[in-house]
């Protein structure tokens, strides 16, 4: 009898310790609703997402709640409502996104305060268009145009014609919303009237590295291993490999450095030689030279300036307007230099939203339409 009592006591202590270690009380699954579609997020799903996202991070316990929304299919979040037993609270996503963490299945931390909602209701926003494309379609349609062995075809339809070349113009940080503003302000007479524009979503998190990884691999950040900044290489095949494997060449004209590794590509860097604080003029001159030398099958020209100026002065500032107009002029001069039979694809990696900060007036990285809404312009030269 005495022996049994001791054993109960030991089991009880063990259970108590286990509960404490597992962050008491044991969390129930999270009842998530995205635009009315019910999803049960259980510990298995939490662990799976957690493991992927935090693979290279010191923080193994929490991540931005946006990861959960994105992995469940949301591209733009308007608001969330936390429903507890006798209360509910709705938040504009733009007010809390950057300070909202997800931990331990059903726990949500907003600005340092921990909540255990019974339900989490998400309202999404974004494009109203019936068909919205993705940055991952770009490498696929490129492969189609050049007859390369790559992933299955893009959802975009290839314009009529035989293509011997594909030229990408990567306009950093010049998202869909920014493009529309620029068009209304008559800043982009060339870009605003060239080719066919397809609305698209970028990749979460909407940053240069994650977007470039999706652009090159043709698959989403949840599948290509690059779901945070700081990862510079792909571990899966990319369009660059497909080009090289076919005996073709991929030329890349970059700013002063490459934001991502481009294995197999022939890279031209463009330092700020004239010291005017920007590399777009050098990128423009180098692109002109590469084209004049006789371009190879694939070309990517990466203009960084709109993003840089947007961070410093804010999107929609005077400085930003000037930079946008400058890039439009470069584009109007470069595209006519391309050989006939070139499929031209113009796109941004992500957009940008205004912020007020000591050092910066623009940023990107959230599930906001301004950050996630992008486009592809397809044009035949
Ligand atoms: Zn970028
Ligand atoms: Zn940026």
Explained architecture:
The protein is of the alpha/beta class and 381 residues long. It folds into 2 domains: 12-124, no CATH class; 133-380, 3-Layer(aba) Sandwich (Alkaline Phosphatase, subunit A), CATH 3.40.720. The chain is built from 13 helices and 19 strands. It has helices at 2-21, 43-53, 65-71, 93-96, 137-146, 176-184, 208-217, 221-224, 239-245, 280-292, 305-313, 318-334, 369-372, and strands spanning 30-34, 37-41, 62-64, 77-84, 87-92, 100-103, 107-110, 113-115, 119-124, 133-134, 165-171, 196-201, 250-253, 266-268, 298-303, 342-347, 353-354, 362-363, 373-380. An 8-stranded mixed sheet has the order 10-12-19-16-11-15-13-14. Strands 2-1-9-4-5 form a 5-stranded mixed sheet. Strands 3-6-7-8 form a 4-stranded antiparallel sheet. A hairpin with a 2-residue loop joins β7 (107-110) and β8 (113-115). The chain is globular, with a radius of gyration of 24 Å. Mean pLDDT is 91; it is low at 1-6 and 16-24. The structure holds zinc ion (2 copies). Residues 172-173, 208, 307, 349-350 line the site of one zinc ion.
Quick synopsis:
The chain has helices at residues 2-21, 43-53, 65-71, 93-96, 137-146, 176-184, 208-217, 221-224, 239-245, 280-292, 305-313, 318-334, 369-372, and strands at 30-34, 37-41, 62-64, 77-84, 87-92, 100-103, 107-110, 113-115, 119-124, 133-134, 165-171, 196-201, 250-253, 266-268, 298-303, 342-347, 353-354, 362-363, 373-380.
Structure keywords:
single chain; 381 residues; alpha/beta; Alkaline Phosphatase, subunit A; 2 domains; 8-stranded mixed β-sheet; 5-stranded mixed β-sheet; globular; disordered N terminus; binds zinc ion
